[in-house]
Write a structure and sequence with these properties.
alpha+beta; 3-stranded antiparallel beta sheet; 50% helix; single chain
Length: 256
């Protein structure tokens, strides 16, 4: 999973103002690892550099910076149903009947995910459950979207929601192909929330170097949170252990 969030940074280039830098956040929901990567811009060079050796599934919103990051077949893209759902929620005041139809079908997809989570099903069973229950709903939703697109105003809220969802449709439905995959990006958004809270407290990073150091701290503490590790106890253990620990084995000190 990938997402990005801005962070104001003081620089000598803008005296009296802040530079708009970005924490690019990557989350592996299977191994429960989070990594914040600070970059000075929101350009494609950030994920392209960070993911240059990566191959596998990449889930994101519709931001184009995540497209074409490697040779065909190296990265398989997934989209986020939560973003699509929000578009239809915004359209409720514009066209309630159509928006509620879409939200009802999307809600049925989330009901399946809730069942899998509540029952703590294995990845293989989740895949079977989706094939039996979600795939049919997805086909119904796709047919409805295709049917409605020509009869709504393109620039209306409902038109934007329908067009957005259809434009990402192959990526939106791909999560049903593997039980390890998620229907949305909400897990990574949960990891980003502390950054928004931090911005209200410290307001800005003092330098690009400071923002990079903050990214390291966010990475470690977010991983602690996801893995249920008490951060202070872990930090204390690491600080006591690192001086005599082999540098080529430092990854073994990650929160587990």
């Amino acid at each position: 999973m990938a997402d990005e969030t801005p962070i104001p940074v003081l620089t000598e280039d803008k005296p009296g103002a802040t530079h708009r830098g970005y924490h690019w956040v990557y989350y592996d929901p299977v191994n429960k690892l989070v990594c914040f990567d600070y970059r000075q811009s929101r350009g494609r060079e950030g994920p392209k550099s960070f993911l240059q050796d990566f191959s596998g599934y990449l889930q994101s919103d519709g931001y184009s910076a995540y497209d074409n990051l490697g040779p065909p077949g190296k990265i398989t893209h997934l989209a986020c149903f939560a973003h699509a759902r929000r578009k239809f929620e915004h359209a409720l005041d514009n066209d309630r009947e159509r928006a509620e139809k879409a939200l009802t079908l999307i809600g049925q997809l989330y009901d399946v995910e809730r069942e899998a989570r509540d029952k703590q099903l294995s990845y293989d069973v989740i895949k079977d459950l989706r094939e039996n229950q979600s795939v049919g709903v997805l086909k119904e939703l796709e047919a409805w979207l295709i049917d409605q697109e020509p009869v709504v105003l393109p620039k209306s809220a409902i038109g934007i929601a329908i067009r957005y969802t259809l434009s990402l449709w192959p990526r939106l439905k791909k999560y049903t192909e593997d039980g390890r995959l998620q229907i949305d990006n909400n897990l990574i958004e949960n990891s980003i929330r502390p950054v928004a809270l931090g911005r209200k407290n410290y307001l800005f990073a003092g330098s690009h170097e400071g923002a990079q150091k903050a990214a390291i701290i966010y990475s470690l503490l977010a991983t602690c949170k996801i893995r249920g590790v008490e951060p202070y106890a872990w930090l204390k253990y690491v600080l006591e252990t690192v001086p005599d620990y082999p540098t080529n084995q430092l990854e073994n000190l990650l929160p587990t």
